[in-house]
């Protein structure tokens, strides 16, 4: 697995790949494959978030919990789906918020957020794989320890990152982040089943924070 992760992240996270939990996770994923299970996303996209957003380029972090478990949806970026797939409800709600606070934002016909990742938004799910049709099926197999390590490394070795924590699960990661060095924005989860996400103004607030630090703002528009 280590061979398919971007070089700066590979150097930072290399010790994790040698730990027992990661070896157990690799064995688990191999067993899934041997049993004929379909796992999302495909192997070359598992570390997509890292590959699009190198360690020293991270400006903001959006934490999700689990990859989508339907065909052709997950491609390694939290809340994002591949083009040609219907936009999921949570992402539709995110688009609604963007439409209300970003003047140039026009709701796109797709759910691919790669443009954000390429600008420095780490779209990180806590669990990086899932069995087809079975939500949460790969939770507590080791991925959370790995992604927590990634968050901790950013928190320790970088400064001025904006962490957008939506919902209780994402907000539980705040304990890994020092607000003396970083910025934490909290809101309810964007799922239509939750309430309070719309009106959070997180996208404009993140840009205000970046601008004050002399950094390039994120272009949240999607074509």
How would you describe this structure to a colleague?
The protein has helices at 7-17, 20-34, 48-52, 89-101, 114-118, 143-157, 167-171, 202-212, and strands spanning 39-40, 60-64, 121-125, 130-131, 162-166, 183-187. It has 223 residues and is α/β, with parallel strands linked by helices. Helices cover 36% and strands 11% of the residues. Strands 3-2-5-6 form a four-stranded parallel β-sheet. The chain has a two-stranded antiparallel ribbon with strand order 1-4.
Q: How much is the radius of gyration in Å?
A: 17 Å
**Topology order in helix (H) and strand (E) letters:** HHEHEHHEEHEHEH
**Alpha plus pi helix count:** 8
User: What level of helicity do the residues show?
Assistant: 25-40%
Shape: globular
- Biggest sheet statistics: 4 strands, parallel
Strand content: 5-15%
Q: Mean pLDDT score, rounded?
A: 96
Short key terms for the protein model shown above:
two-stranded antiparallel ribbon; 8 helices; 223 residues; globular; alpha/beta
């Amino acid at each position: 697995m280590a061979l398919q992760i971007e070089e700066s992240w590979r150097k930072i996270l290399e010790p994790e790949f040698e730990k027992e939990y990661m070896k157990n996770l690799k064995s688990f994923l191999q067993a899934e494959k041997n049993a004929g299970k379909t796992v999302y996303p495909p192997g070359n996209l598992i570390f997509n978030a890292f590959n699009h957003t190198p360690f020293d380029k991270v400006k903001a972090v959006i934490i999700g919990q689990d990859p989508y478990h339907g065909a052709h949806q997950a491609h390694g970026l939290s809340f994002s789906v591949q083009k040609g797939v219907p936009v999921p409800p949570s992402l539709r709600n995110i688009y609604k918020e963007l439409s209300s606070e970003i003047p140039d934002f026009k709701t796109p016909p797709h759910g691919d957020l790669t443009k954000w990742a390429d600008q420095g938004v780490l779209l990180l799910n806590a669990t990086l794989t899932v069995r087809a049709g079975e939500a949460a099926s790969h939770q507590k197999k080791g991925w959370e320890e790995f992604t927590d390590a990634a968050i901790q490394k950013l928190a320790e070795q970088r400064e001025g990152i904006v962490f957008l924590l939506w919902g209780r699960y994402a907000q539980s990661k705040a304990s890994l982040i020092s607000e003396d060095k970083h910025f934490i924005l909290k809101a309810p989860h964007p799922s239509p089943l939750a309430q309070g996400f719309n009106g959070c103004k997180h996208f404009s607030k993140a840009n205000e924070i970046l601008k004050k630090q002399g950094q390039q703002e994120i272009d949240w528009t999607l074509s």
